[in-house]
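Trying the structure run again after the queue cleared.
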Amino acid sequence: GFVKAAASVPLAFVETSTMTFSTALVYFAIVAVLFNLRNRLLLKRTTIFLLAAANFFIFTEVFEHGRSTLKLTILDVGQGDAIMIDFPNRSRLLVDAGPQSLRRDAGESVVAPFLKRNGMRSLDALLISHPHADHFGGVSALLKHVPIGKIVEGASLGDSGLYESWKRIARLIGIPVVKHEAGEQLKLDPSARVYILHPRLPEDSSSNHNNASLVLKVAYGTTSVLLTGDAEFETEEKLLRRYGAFLSSQILKVGHHGSITSSGEEFLKRISPQFSLISVGLRNKFRHPSDEVIARLKSLGKEVLRTDRQGAIILESDGRSWKRIDWR
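Done. Tokens:
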């Protein structure tokens, strides 16, 4: 009877993906009080418990608001990319949204549940590195779940029905789609910088969508991360000529899922990453990552992390150094 009465209240539902052990305890404590209003001892004890729980939630929220860390999450979306950047001021940038296939939509099955589970009710920006389905396939599903401030795309335009479908949905719900190129910044948090390094128009226009990937450098304090999309050797050489030492970053999202067409030796030496992150599907048909690329990365003496082995990869920066978060 209680469950039926509670369910009759408009909008009465609980997202189980966001329900933690502590919220479940509070819920059952309230239920216990409602059924034992005449039991003064139980009422007194439960009231003390609820007040203590309220204090816990309040102070947890206060400390969360006071945090000053930047969090980078490489989601395990299989053979594709989806990278969440959570800034100190709670702005959120999602770079790519994973693949879509006949069997699985990463936007629906991975990205949207991840956002809900972590209490992320909106995104300030969604950036699509380039128009290949393993990077934008999950966008349409995501648009149906999460309010998004704007969608950023680069020089390359997709011409597939799947690409046009997310654009049509964005137009219908009024989400602006903007273009950015090298030399611009995404202004999301005054304490961090998001530089767009590639492509520069019109000279970087390319029929090869991989080589027109948006390349980002995110800097927070003295720490930084370089996100290269699916950029191949041609783009890496341009980046080396244009930016030189500025490419140096502690974190590298390895280009093109560790393909043999990316991650040239000189490029890797210039970046000299502390962590090299590869977003790749288990036993994928492309046989990514290449053994040769892995050997190049390991020759630098640094740590190589892969989503097909580690699952999601989470790293956090306090502005001075990065640390890996063992979410398991």
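The first strand starts at residue 70 and ends at 74. Worth checking whether this holds up in the mutant runs.
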